Amino acid sequence: MSSTHALTPPSLPPAVSTSSLPARGLRRAAAFGCAFAAAGAFWASLARPWWSFVLYAPQYPRGLRLSISLTGLSGDVHEVGMLNHYIGMKHLEDAAVFERAYAAPGVALVALLAFAVLFWRGRRPAWWTAGVGLLLPLGFLADSFYWLFRFGHELDPHAPVRVPAFTPQLFGNGRIGQFMTFAQPADGFWIALVGAVLFGVASVLRQYERRAGHAH
After folding, report:
1. How far apart are CA 191 and CA 40, in angstroms?
2. Which of 68, 72, 119, 216 has the fewest CB atoms inside 10 Å of its own CB, making it the most exposed?
3. CA nearest 206: which of 115, 107, 113?
4. Domain boundaries defined on the chain
């Protein structure tokens, strides 16, 4: 007595879905495109002023203007330097000498670091990498505040005019003796901030692309 058995096809491993591959490729291309744009913005900011200061007084009704870039100073540098001498402040050219000398390599280093973290590999997405691009603008702010504080608190005690120690205003309106001051970011800072945002977008896209790769 013979029995028949229905033939069943052998079980096959589930097919790897390729539907997400084009999306992953697009995310990767967009991530590196944003990263290149961010590096370009960082580099372009070198040629532009990052911060501007205006000093007003009765004898200067139009104001004295200073523009601060990563590589130097421009504007009414000589006139402001003479006024600073009367209250015992150091020459403006003495501030951030190291930073100005190595500004270009520093910007290049931040751009390279930004690209390097795009290749970060770990078990979990490293969302902290999205903030690496902020190192440049935040570092500039911290360094600028340091030098403003130092110059305002290391006054020559033998200066012709004695004023209490102070910290010049980094944002908005301030006062130094009889001078009213106004400080604000210039276009170089905003360009660098756009670069930081672009790199943040690049990092987020890269992390999503990696997470999608781990899911399959």
Report:
1. 10
2. 119
3. 115
4. 22-215
Q: What is the pLDDT of residue 32?
A: 84
Contact 25, 155 (CB under 8 A): no
The pTM score is 0.81
Structure tokens at 188: 């170089």
Task: Render pLDDT for 153-211 as a digit per residue (tens, 0 to 9).
Answer: 999 999 898 888 999 999 999 988 788 999 999 999 999 999 999 988 888 888 777 66
Distance CA 136, CA 54 (A): 24
Q: How confident is the model at residue 11 (pLDDT cuts 50, 70, 90)?
A: low
Task: State which CATH number among 1.20.140, 1.10.1660, 2.40.50, 2.115.10 fits the domain covering 22-215.
Answer: 1.20.140
Token pair listed for 156:
């020559």
Cβ-based burial of 63 (10 A; exposed 0-12, middle 13-18, buried ≥19): middle
Q: Where are the alpha helices (DSSP H) in the chain?
A: 21-45, 77-86, 97-101, 103-117, 135-153, 187-215
Pairing verdict, β 60-68 and 172-176: unpaired
What is the Cα–Cα distance from 61 to 45, expressed in whole angstroms? 31
DSSP 14-54: PPPP-TTHHHHHHHHHHHHHHHHHHHHHHHHHTTS--EEEE
Backbone φ and ψ for 89, nearest 5 degrees, come out as: -85, 150
Which 3 state secondary structure label does DSSP give 151? helix
Length of the chain: 216
